[in-house]
Amino acid sequence: MVKDNSLCDIGFIGLGVMGKNLTLNLADNGYKVACFDLDQAKVDAIIEQDNEERGEQAPRVVACRSYTELLSKLAQPRIIMLSVPAGEPVDHVCRHLINAGIGADDIIVDTGNSLWTDSLEREATYKGKFIFFSTAVSGGEVGARFGPSLMPSGDPYAWSRIANVLKDIAAKVDPKTGKPIESSTPGKPVKEGEPCATYIGPVGAGHYVKMVHNGIEYADMQLICEAYNVMREGLGLAPKAIAGIFRQWNQGLLNSYLMEISAEVLDMDDGETGQPLVDVILDRAGQKGTGLWTAVGALQVGSPAQTITQAVFARSISSLKSERVAASKVLKGPAPAAVSEQEKAAAIEALHDALYCSKMCAYAQGFQLMAMASKEQGWKLDFAGIAKIWRAGCIIRASFLQSITEAYEQTEDLANLLLAPYFAEQIAQYQGNWRRAIANATLMGIPCGGFSSALNYYDSYRSETLPANLLQGQRDYFGAHTYERTDKPQGKKFHTEWSQPGRPQVQVK
Fold first, then answer.
1. What's residue 288's pLDDT?
2. Which in 61, 257, 429, 452 has the greatest CB count within 10 A?
3. What is the pTM of this model?
4. Could you give the percent of the chain with pLDDT greater than 90?
5. What are the CA-CA distances from residue 134 to residues 86, 118, 125, 207 (Å)?
6. DSSP assignment letter at 305
7. pLDDT for 193-243, tens place per residue?
8. Are 49 and 24 in contact (CB under 8 A)?
9. Residues forming CATH 3.40.50.720 domain(s) in the chain
10. Would you list the DSSP string of 242-295?
11. Are 362 and 416 in contact, with CB atoms under 8 Å apart?
12. Mapping DSSP to helix (H, G, I), strand (E, B) and coil, where does residue 14 land?
């Protein structure tokens, strides 16, 4: 069959920040894209930008005024990518494409932040009408434009058709070092290197992995903020001084995108007041729901993800701004104490190590959650592969992820990231300062729930015996919930008749 060069390779619906940049990324990589948005101004804007960027090349992006026109301009079988808000807007587009005449062999790729269970339902709902596929995207607007991290999942047949497209537009890393490869020519796509896109598994798996990515992101951001808060409120350092410390940390073990941008935020002055910009930003954090979904998901499968959950709670308590202002006038903490320069230096070093150890625990919790969900759903997730695609393009990209990749490559069935020899040795080396940093913050009256929850996770996980034995006794006392014995085979249940003289113990069948 002779290809009709007047037709487009890919359709794209939804031209907000992410959709516009993904469309231009596709165009940079040689794909002709037919685009549509309910807001005609967004269609006009991307056409104008494409005209400016393509120079003497033929148009790479084609404007469409309706769903029907979009379908008519695509080579068959069609590939259509969506970047619309999660929930009903996705189904709204799907229904309109069905009415416009989409075919059973056409593929719709959801690139939004959809809840993974919604993807499961959509695959079943639209089966026979078209192939529903999804690829979660991380990297923000810059990543979308020049190379994001992609977490695709769904029908393997659909993956075979779109794999090259997604790998082309994804971020690339050096396969030996794991370091991101930057374009040698600004605005030109990176062709060499290992793409940060790999097939995750059946439908829903990719969005679940992205959900956990965002949960880790919540934790990582909160931990950095706690280090900042101790330095600012406890040690009296100015934002620019903290920015310098963060830049120094970013040269070593804590190298990451989030550390880099945190330094930039702290270094910026407000153009209106001349104060540090961070001082005029209201301390009330927003959230879009993926961190909450991760916390709920952890509770549903019984996975201990307390640092991720604590990060969600930290945003929740930040939202109580007026209550916190009132409480600050009533509730007392410890009196401020003078800190010598030598003590400051030691405290800063301790914070570095606390951030590093807590970060390890946050990632361990995320991977443990994915492992438990993978087992429950029958997904067989490849954790080395997941760590690989997070090394560039995504928000939590960090040199740290190369060590995670190597840990799972060396031990495929690793029960917990902390059990890998490298991570066990790292925490053993730095945990003293981790504990000191938490003690210092606590004595200063500065909240450090992220650091504390991570340490509690570590200490609980390494404990051969936990006080759950007493808890089981309590449950059996008031509710006859039974318990197991340490001197009997696992699975055998016992109950004590607590109210009877002599308190006889019986085995429960």
1. 73
2. 61
3. 0.93
4. 86
5. 12, 11, 14, 8
6. -
7. 999 999 999 999 999 999 999 999 999 999 999 999 999 999 999 999 999
8. yes
9. 10-203
10. HHHHHHHHTTTTT-BHHHHHHHHHHHPBPTTT-SBHHHHS-S-----SHHHHHH
11. no
12. coil
Q: Is 210 labeled as catalytic in the residue annotation?
A: yes
Q: What percent of the chain has pLDDT over 70?
A: 98
* Architecture (CATH level 2) of domain 220-461: Orthogonal Bundle (1.10)
Cα distance between residue 204 and residue 370, in whole Å = 12
Going by C-alpha positions, the residue among 429, 407, 431, 432 that lies closest to residue 419 is 407
pLDDT at 131 over 60: yes
10-203 folds as Rossmann fold (3.40.50)
Q: Are 155 and 162 in contact (CB under 8 A)?
A: no
Mark whether 217 is an active-site residue.
yes
Strand partners, 494: 483, 507
Better-predicted residue by pLDDT, 133 or 291: 133
Please report, as a single letter, which amino acid is at residue 182.
E
**From 123, 194, 217, 226, the catalytic residue:** 217
Give the long-range contacts of residues 138-143, CB within 8 A, separation 24 or more.
Answer: 138/210, 138/213, 138/214, 138/390, 138/393, 138/394, 138/395, 138/396, 139/171, 139/393, 139/394, 139/395, 140/395, 141/17, 141/18, 141/21, 142/21, 143/171, 143/393, 143/394, 143/395
Of 210, 226, 359, 388, the catalytic one is 210
Q: Where does the chain hold its CATH 1.10.1040.10 domain(s)? A: 220-461
CA–CA distance, 270 with 7 (Å, rounded to integer)? 49
- Could you tell me which CATH number the domain at 468-508 has? 1.20.5
Alpha-carbon 289 to chain mean position: 12
Give ranges for CATH 1.20.5 in the chain.
468-508
